[in-house]
Amino acid sequence: MAHSIVPPYLLARLAEADAASMQRAASAARRSLRSEPAVRAERRREGLAAPLPAASASQNAALKRTIADAANTELLPGLVVRSEGAPATDDPAVNEAYDGLGATHALLLTAFGRNSVDGRGLPLDATVHYGDDYDNAFWDGARMVFGDGDGEVFNRFTASLSVIGHELAHGVTQYTAALVYAGQSGALNESFSDVIGALVEQHARGQRANEASWLIGEGLFTAQVEGTALRSMVEPGTAYDDDVLGRDPQPADMAGYVQTRDDNGGVHLNSGIPNRAFALAAIELGGFAWERAGRVWYDAISGDGARDEGDGAAPPRARLSSTATFLEFADATVASARALFGEGSAEAAAIAAAWVTVGVRSDDRPAAG
């Protein structure tokens, strides 16, 4: 299943640019959009594979990375230019991809005990220099693929660690909840990837929740763009406001929820709502976001906690549905917080309050069991 970091509505705006300084970017956007039908067809297969059971903690967690170079073609995988343990090359894109795969693996393993995206040590492969001025990066169900950007609007896509973490997290979802890539379940799919992307960046930098930018794709835009990133998790709708790209259209709460058939039912748009819920909860709890709010979100997606319950003390929690709504996911996170940290815990309270703030839950709603 292919998932791209740059949403189609942003590429569509860029494809229509007529400014002389944006012609290369406009042409690159049009080429990227022409590949969208094939990408959407792959996305519709989301959820066909059954989630894998978790591997044991003792399983060999050795990191295995391979970086290939497509040499500006669209032929995958390309020529291998760096393998696990090999020294850095003189190509920044190769080194950034290699380091980003490693940082994502480190977050998943140390924070959640997950051995690679499938939980069973799947080798992490990536291809750089894909396409001609290709304005995107994507997970194709087996590997990461990075374009170089057009140089006018987008820089190379390996330059953002949150982008690498985001795309690999689609692999985690693929092997766990398998959230259908449409409507609210698709927005949750995108949001969980943003959560992991942000956590990978924060983990690598040793940042606490209140120190983080909560930006996804920071550094992707060139200096010509009036914007800081593709998305802001803590303030959806504020990441960019540009004459060519327009204004960031993400809603911050359910009052602004976008009903649309475009973008697979607004998966990149409405993901701003659960994104903000996570960021608010993580900041309220303080400390490192992956230790508390991150554990809860991972537990709700992976079902690991639900699988480990059922010892007679309490009935096991139900797995998250592949077509989960925002409310179902919110209930799942509150239930996970109570199971992980306690019924009256600060974690459960902060997470429940965050979902109320964004309009998904009400103050008096009990968590689903």
Describe what you observe in this structure:
The protein is about 40% helix and about 10% strand. It has about 375 residues and is an alpha+beta fold. It has a 6-stranded mixed beta sheet, with helices on one face. It is globular, with a radius of gyration of 20 Å. The two termini are about 30 Å apart. The model is unreliable at about 35-50 and about 310-315 (pLDDT under 50).
Search tags:
globular; 369 residues; six-stranded mixed β-sheet; alpha+beta; 10 strands; 40% helix
Morphology: globular
Number of helices: 12
Number of E-type strands:
10
What's the helix-strand series?
A: EHHHEEHEEEHHEEEEHHHHHH
Classify the secondary structure makeup into a structural class. alpha+beta
- Report the end-to-end length measured between terminal Cα atoms: 31 Å
**Uncertain segments:** 37-50, 310-314
Radius of gyration from the CA trace?
Answer: 20 Å
Placed side by side, the strands forming the largest sheet appear as 1-5-6-4-2-3
Mean pLDDT: 90
Characterize the main sheet.
6 strands, mixed
Which bin fits the share of residues in helices? 40-55%
Strand content: 5-15%
Concise account of the structure shown:
The chain has 369 residues and is of the alpha+beta class. The protein is built from twelve helices and ten strands.
Layout of secondary structure:
Layout: E1 3-4, H1 8-15, H2 23-34, H3 36-43, E2 65-69, E3 79-83, H4 92-112, E4 124-128, E5 137-139, E6 144-146, H5 161-175, H6 183-205, E7 215-216, E8 231-232, E9 241-242, E10 246-247, H7 262-266, H8 272-285, H9 293-302, H10 304-308, H11 326-341, H12 346-357
Parallel strand pairs: 2-4, 4-6
Antiparallel strand pairs: 1-5, 2-3, 5-6, 7-8, 9-10
Helix pairs in contact: 1-2, 4-5, 4-6, 5-6, 6-8, 6-9, 8-12, 9-11, 11-12
